[in-house]
Every structure is written in C-alpha cells, then in structure tokens.
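Deliverable D5.2: sample structural annotation.
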Amino acid sequence: MIYYITGGERSGKSRYAMELALKLSGNPVYIATARQWDKDFQKRIDRHKSERDERWQNIEEEKNLSNLELKGQVAVMDCITLWLTNFYADTKHNVEESLTQAKNEFDKFTQQDFTLIVISNEIGMGVHADSEIGRKFVELQGWINQYIANKADKAILMVSGLPLTLK
C-alpha cells in the first residue's frame, strides 16, 4: 500500500503523514532522506527528530532505500524532494540520470510488502526558479511526483493543513 502526500512547504504534510502512520501502526518507521547541508538545515533535522517519540523507529537514508528491510511495517518517507536532491547533486544536475536513478530505486524499494506513506513537495505551483539549476529541478520534481502518484494507491494534497483526496 502506498500513500502519496504532497503539498507546499509547511502545508501540514509531515504532521498528516505521522498521524496516519500512528493510526496504522503502534511502532512505525520514519525514513529521513535529508543530507545535512549546513547548520540551519541541521536545526530543521533536529526539530523533526524531536517531534517523534519512542514509538518511532528512525532511519536516516539519503538514497539507497531498497537496502532497507521493511516487510510488514508502516513507514513514512520524508521526503521525496530531499531524496531527489541527493540524486540531482550527485549527478551534477543531470535531470535524465537523476530521474532514471530515482525511478529505479523507488521501484526496487516498493517491491517489498509494507505500507509506505511518502511525502513530497509540490514545488511547481510556487515562484518560478531564478536559475537554470532551479528550473531543471522543478521539472525533475514534477516528473518524479507524477511517477510516484501514479503508482500510489491513495494520493492526498495538503493545503493549509487540510487534506484533499486526489485518489
């Protein structure tokens, strides 16, 4: 079962995903895909960690999700955008290679029998990126969002903390 949760920044995606995970399991897994880029980002990571109590198993994995064994578990992946950024940075901003690698890894990862609640940002509805690298990433994000949303059993768009069911 794949739940796809998308929306803008600070739209309530993580809160909604965590609440859903706790409804489905007494001890869900939280998969953090962020790299520590700088001290400010580390503060954000620390804040997110502090929001999870002892019920959560925390795993940090930047890219290789298929290495995780999650059979029979409920897992929140937070988030596609940060995960995709890692591919994009590692391929020196090669959109095609990043998309291919991310799709392949996501497909291998989701071959397991588990419940996945995946969070992604809908960045294409925001301000137009002012750099070529930024514009290419917006396109890359849009393509991977479409790919994952299509594979999902349920899709939810978060707007101002409210869930809107897409499918």
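Annotation notes: The beta strands are 2-7, 29-32, 57-60, 74-78, 115-121, 154-159, 162-165. The chain has one domain: 2-165.
The annotation will be released with the project's public dataset once the embargo ends.
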